[in-house]
Design brief:
This protein has 205 residues and is mostly helical. It contains nine helices and no strands.
């Protein structure tokens, strides 16, 4: 009986090792496939950081309010789909926000690119504006984990603000809470209306 139990235990451990190796192998393949695109993203981020650094005022504001001055190597770490899913699944229950919602906002905001920088100054996976980075004390807005954490906290705050009204919360994430409060509804802004429609459409499919 003891020999049988030992044999079963050994087989279970071996199966777990095989599964772990398969997951790691898949992650390595995904990372390798993403590398050419990520190299281009790093080059783009480096150029934008250098251009913006020359215009950054010298002050005593906290470091998280001047994200564009961060070293490129720390600024844009690649993230595989497997790593992204793990981070979302870990963050979602902490803020009581649907992981599906977090994923679709990230998809809409940056196409899952931690290196994304918008013309308006939004940065990273969840496209955080400088004020949001300061609000949630984001030290590296190009970090997928920090961006997801802050973006999820912002989504939670907006859902609470609008009493669970997802359309209004998403509108505020895109256009700002002040704009939504003034309109009293989804603002008549084509970009915002399309933003809300695209996310809700994917969530409800």
């Amino acid at each position: 009986m003891i020999v049988l139990l030992a044999l079963l235990l050994a087989q279970a451990v071996q199966a777990q090792n095989v599964q772990a190796q398969a997951v790691q192998s898949q992650a390595d393949r995904i990372r390798a496939a993403m590398e050419p695109s990520l190299a281009k993203q790093r080059a783009s981020v480096r150029a934008q950081i250098e251009a913006l650094a020359a215009n950054q005022p010298s002050s005593n504001v906290p470091s998280w309010t001047v994200p564009m001055l961060m070293p490129e190597a720390a600024a844009c770490e690649p993230v595989s789909p497997i790593e992204l899913s793990r981070m979302i699944d870990d963050i979602a229950p902490k803020e009581n926000v649907s992981p599906i919602l977090i994923r679709e906002v990230a998809r809409q905001e940056s196409g899952f690119s931690p290196c994304a920088i918008s013309p308006k100054g939004a940065v990273g996976l969840m496209q955080l504006m400088p004020s949001t980075q300061a609000q949630f004390q984001v030290k590296n807005p190009f970090s997928a984990k920090e961006s997801l954490e802050a973006g999820t906290k912002l989504l939670k705050d907006l859902l609470d603000r609008y009493h669970g009204n997802l359309s209004l919360a998403l509108s505020a994430y895109n256009a700002g809470a002040g704009t939504v409060d003034k309109a009293g509804a989804v603002p008549e802004i084509p970009e915002t209306k399309n933003y809300v429609f695209e996310i809700l459409n994917r969530i409800t499919q």
